[in-house]
Amino acid sequence: MWGSLRVRLLLATILVVVIAIGVTAFVATRRTEGEFQRYVERRSPLDDRRLGYLLARYFEDHGWEDIQAEVVRLSQFSGQRVVVTDEAGVVLADSDSKLIGKAAEDRWPPPRAVLQQNAATVGSVYIDPTGGPPDPAATFISAVNRSVLFGALAAGLAAVIVTLAVSGRILRPVRQLQIAAGQMARGDLSARVPVESDDELGQLAVAFNTMAGSLAEQELLRRNMVGDVAHELRTPLTNLRGYLEAVRDGLLPPDAALVDNLYEETMLLTRLVTDLHELAQAEAGQLTLLRAPERLSEVVDQAVTILRPQADAKGVALSIELTPDLPTVDIDRERIGQVLRNLMNNALAHTPAGGTITVSAGRSGDEVAVTVRDNGEGIAAAHVPHVFDRFYRADSSRARQTGGAGLGLAIVKQLVEAHGGTITLTSAEGQGSTFTFSVPIAA
């Protein structure tokens, strides 16, 4: 219970309210008390010192003669009970006429004034010695304190009610997030939370749903990858097994043609395993790059030269468009050559006879942008966001003539990013595709 965010928020609010009201009440009380005391002193027609002075003057002029009448007069004027005693402590005058002739008691407060004659004490003046009516200042301050206390209680209650209402409004989406997160932790990646506002909590819900969707997509890709790897391995292994069983059973002679078929299937397995190994190294950041300043034109020329025979055989034209005075780039020559060959192979696979593949490059800030553009069949918009995913092929059939193993573009993306660059795709169905990647300029 005490670990609940709602309880802690409520306690924090109450603490803030208590501190704020306490400080306010303390300052207000002290200030009110001081101001009221000064007000009383300014408005009082006869304070204690003045009263004592008047009685002393009366004693000097008249002695104790008619002292009772004078005390009654002064009491009426000041609004306080006045008692006068002689030097022995016997009451000579009492404005209430109740203590005359009695001795002053020890429990009385100290006298407010002392009457003297020839430097000798002849009497004392007491104000309300037995406890008169309540002190107006104390009564006023007490009333103020009660008002502050009631106000504090009302403010505290209002703060608690508001806090409970606000915390409920805030914590409801948090609880929904907690429930959805628990479902995801148990393996249910379909869990989502409703988006109820456009504030930070609504943005958090959107981010959570996006994350959940990404995780679900990645889980689907992971499962598909396992099936894809199994499929890609199964086909050449099945072929190898079929050939070997046919030779063992005497159905096929072990001639050169059979050896060539076995070699081709073995090379297919080797390329698949090599691609998987390179992709795993690149994704783990363990791919070793032998970077050095290189002339990009030489790398492009080499890649085009390698693929030109295949392009000529298919009837596809290869062209190079490089801006003059290209700066040297900081790259691993072999890896960037592999990127170019993969992109050109991909373009060649999807460009019909009579089409054109163009490789161009130009400076873009601190980088060189390289583009591989074709006017082939293009890629549907639904497939564009996924072309760099492992084992993803826009062609749902698994014919290697059109789809390959689905690792080439994933490897391209990892190799470009390993160089600190980026790669993008612009394509439309029936209008060809344009792949653009960047590499850093050598320092």
Write a compact overview of the structure shown.
This protein is α+β, with helices and mostly antiparallel strands and 443 residues long.
Low-confidence stretches: 397-403
Given the structure, what is the number of helices?
10
State the CATH topology of the largest domain. Heat Shock Protein 90
Structural class: alpha+beta
How much of the polypeptide forms β-strand, as a percent range? Answer: 5-15%
Instruction: Report how far apart the termini are.
Output: 61 Å
Shape estimate = rod-shaped
Task: Name the helicity range.
Answer: 55-70%
Order of helices and strands: HHHEEEEHHHEHEEHEEHHEE
* Number of strand elements: 11
CATH architecture descriptor text of the largest domain: 2-Layer Sandwich
Rg, nearest Å: 50 Å
Write down the overall mean pLDDT. Answer: 82
Largest sheet: 5 strands, mixed
CATH superfamily of the largest domain: Histidine kinase-like ATPase, C-terminal domain
- Output the CATH class name of the largest domain: Alpha Beta
Tally of discrete structural domains: 4
Taking strands numbered 1, 2, ... along the chain, how are they ordered across the largest sheet? 6-8-9-11-10
